[in-house]
């Protein structure tokens, strides 16, 4: 008789599928490299990202300044690497906010149904009617610009996506035999949602979480570009793009390097998310 596959064997199978996807592996490697550079940035002997030198304003690439300097004479390489920590920190906290709140609301609406589910559906539809960046701008306008405003606004814009995914899975799972059996033996609703249904939501939520990282990076950069996000002189890729737009003709490197950094990181998360989606799909063959 065949044995039921345990969680460890399923994890191994998922890892094998993921490792066979070259694009997903490439995305994972890029993310790890950027995270490592962001962590080690203070220890790499780089110049102070906030130190100004007006004798080096808008200088191009050189051996002393590999990415050149900006309109304040600050080293762009140092600002890009230190800005990676800011961008990754904002995106990680924002996606955790969207994941936590969206998953909780989606589970409650999908499990209890009736009036609660109707309210959840209406709330989700209203939020999804607004583009993510526009919704984030509205939240920042209410909270105020700054790192806290960007984190809350970016996380809030991700809530409806997590609600929709979680609710759909819960609706399909709550009528299955294992949930009915849990109710029959007297399990509470919170225990059924937390121990029975939630584990079956995790694969889809992990994929969505990875994909949303790229979207939130763009939203956070967009808010900073508009002056509603991270405020100068703190290095952040979107703010650096905004500062360099006035000098794009005379010193394009000010905007090019943070723009390339945003593009590479967003692409890496999208590649990893696509790979995770394929690896976690039970219909995929080994």
Please characterize this protein's 3D structure.
The chain has a single domain, classed as MetI-like fold, CATH 1.10.3720.10. The protein is 72% helix and 0% strand. It is built from 10 helices and no strands. It has helices at 7-20, 22-40, 76-112, 114-128, 132-143, 147-173, 177-184, 189-225, 237-244, 253-280. The chain is elongated, with a radius of gyration of 22 Å. The chain starts with 6 loop residues before the first helix and ends in a 6-residue tail after the last helix.
Task: Record keyword descriptors for this entry.
single chain; 286 residues; mainly alpha; MetI-like fold; 10 helices; elongated; disordered N terminus
Which spans of ≥5 residues are poorly predicted at pLDDT below 50? 1-5
- Arithmetic mean of pLDDT: 87
Largest sheet: none
N-to-C series of helices and strands: HHHHHHHHHH
How many helix segments? 10
* CATH-defined topology: MetI-like fold
Strand coverage percent:
under 5%
Q: How many strands in all?
A: 0
Relative helix content: over 70%
Structurally, how many domains make up the residues?
1
Class by SSE composition: mainly alpha
> What is the CATH homologous superfamily assignment?
MetI-like
The level 1 CATH classification is: Mainly Alpha
State the end-to-end CA separation: 22 Å
- Tell me the Rg in angstroms: 22 Å
Secondary-structure arrangement, i.e. CATH architecture: Orthogonal Bundle
Shape: elongated
Summarize the structure.
The chain has 286 residues and is an all-alpha fold.
